[in-house]
């Protein structure tokens, strides 16, 4: 399918060479990190300003063309795939830090900026943007999927760290939501509505983000457990004790084996917790001591501290590359990365049942996650083209999702719905999913924005 | 205006004696805490279950009757007044703690429960619900206005502490939003949309709240400053230093005078900060020491510590009753309580300009607020029936709101829009206000829910 020629003329008049039509460009924007088949758009637009995005959207609205936003393409449920063709808007040219206000601890940024680029820019200010999904995602994309990651247990998710947005609506109107004030009761939380809306309600063209002070002292550690249950119990006890962990991550024995193979980690192949403490030197020391007591009580052992910055960096690099380490366990394989979140009290049960389910299946699936939030993943490893393995992965993923719902949790803690989790929306939300549809139709009656994602019949 | 007789018959068949029609009941639900004239409903309903609320709503929808929710009637912008008559739903009979899950740190409660009643119930669990707007408001009402108060600087607002809701929609459908899991990326944040929606999108019939551990150690203090500017500067420095204050409240000299007169506080009549620290004994001691250094540098003095629980209780009781202490400054007067929130960097400017504006006016107006969030209030004291004073208060309030917007803030940090702040919505949100209207019409096309509040033309 190609764009209608009158629409193409208008878009080219607006963007000139920044409207890409080549097969290479289209294919690059039809690929994704996971198992979904390629779905390229008809054209890729590289706008340079909010005004251009608004004009582009108005043209597409007039011609009934689908519009899909693109950040870094690192999402895991096919969010940015052009299911119905149309125009993909790549924010690569809108990736600036617009303003840093250290005294207000906020930054205004464009959506194409990555979180690592922002933190590089912030280094000298004593501030940081802590939300850390692992991938060097764009901040617009992170807002759109309500991303979180290793530090959410302390600093919250994108929901908690986006103060304000500028958004281009489906009809080309531009709105600003929120302010740089820390809180407001002035009407519906429209900012919060756009965070997590996966590009289905509007195109985010600017974000005001909440920053945090770089911690004065940081301390990280790993420790091993004889089995999964005591590790998870240590997490639950830690959260309940109110120790303000900056990170508390679980990796199972299979994940440790992947670390050992890829990163020469030299860790005992048992379940581990990876933790980090932020605060004043005295506070960090106290937190670490209290955590140590909980771990000892739960039967954990072999504490290894990463005191130096480069040791800590290596530790979290290893954790962030767990996906690639797992992939390397089965050369040539493809990963189905699952993502569920349950109430903390059901975490041990959820992880144990998942472990048993994968162990009884013919495919490997290391388990790891942000267990301080009750959030965990299995990385299901599948041979490409092997229909039986794909079917197994699909069944295991479905059982994880259903297990999460049965235990009072959610089918996605941080990856989002996209194309991959649509089948569970009815089950998780019931009539609440219809409410999402009503909001969608109110703001995008023609269904132009990211069709095929998140809401029913979109 | 009375209810149409067929609607009345149906409501009486549903509720029996729990549908009140007496003048006394109607008038009690037409009054409010502030300067708005009485606006009684035609009937007051006391449902006992979600099913009854849903049936009541369906009856009202069939007959086109307005429906307004009522908690404790403590809101400050006329939120619960029956501007177009109809049925006021008083949740007094739906005020139970349904479930406390200590291991998940959540509680399920009914909307009529007050925050103090919940905390009484929680006392033995080691947990607490920290959101504290001063008044002993209902939790349904607090969710509806996105309330916050003295502890938001540490524990967040209702936005951060409502995990899930059960809501009866305008057509009588019942939805459940969110789960007891700590985070989710499963679609639009419908929970967040209802928090702060002031009863205009649905009737909240159940809340799942996030609980926090009761702090192991607590320490509170007051200290005086020679002027307002250094007090505010000390607040800014404290926030930026990352000291995890549990409370940091500002009161101006006029408020202190009110405390001295009503509570025999014996404080120097200068601006003061009231602070509280939560944590382990060592952490609290360290926070207090660091805060002391900041205060000394800013020229603060006369630290007075409230170490014992009863001293702390007296301190916060005094702070919470500041409204009544201010009223007592001018016997027989009425208060217009304003509420703005600005970015922290503009706080000194906002407070100073407001102070000067009130000082140049003929009416008193003590200033106080949750300055760690950039949020503050003036309590403008007006003689009832004095049109000139009312006009002055209105003008001062308008100038505060416009000042907040000019400084990049919001016209309400925590009190909400109700009837009182409608005039600023266009100015604060621009086309974003239209988006709120689109959402309202999508979910309540006949405009039955709390008409006259929050959205345009409602």
Properties at a glance:
Alpha-Beta Plaits; globular; 458 residues; Uridine Diphospho-n-acetylenolpyruvylglucosamine Reductase, domain 3; 4 domains; 19 strands; Uridine Diphospho-n-acetylenolpyruvylglucosamine Reductase, domain 2; 17 helices; eight-stranded antiparallel sheet; 38% helix; five-stranded antiparallel sheet; homodimer; alpha+beta
Task: Give a verbal description of the structure.
The structure is a homodimer. The mean pLDDT of chain A is about 95. In chain A, a hairpin with a 4-residue loop joins strand 18 and strand 19 (about 375-380). In chain A, strands 12, 13, 14, 15, 16, 17, 18 and 19 form an 8-stranded antiparallel β-sheet that branches. In chain A, strands 5-6-10-8-9 form a 5-stranded antiparallel β-sheet. The first copy, chain A, has 17 helices and 19 strands. Chain A has helices at about 5-15, 25-30, 50-65, 115-120, 140-145, 150-155, 160, 190-195, 230-240, 255-265, 280-295, 310-320, 320-325, 345-360, 385-405, 420-430, 430-445, and strands at about 20, 45, 65-70, 85-90, 95-100, 105-110, 125-130, 160-170, 175, 200-210, 210-215, 215-225, 245-250, 270-280, 300-305, 335, 340, 365-370, 375-380. The first copy, chain A, is an alpha+beta fold. Chain A folds into 4 domains: about 5-90, Uridine Diphospho-n-acetylenolpyruvylglucosamine Reductase, domain 2 (2-Layer Sandwich); about 100-215, Uridine Diphospho-n-acetylenolpyruvylglucosamine Reductase, domain 3 (2-Layer Sandwich), CATH 3.30.465.10; about 215-325, Alpha-Beta Plaits, CATH 3.30.70; about 330-415, Alpha-Beta Plaits (2-Layer Sandwich). The two termini of chain A are about 20 Å apart.
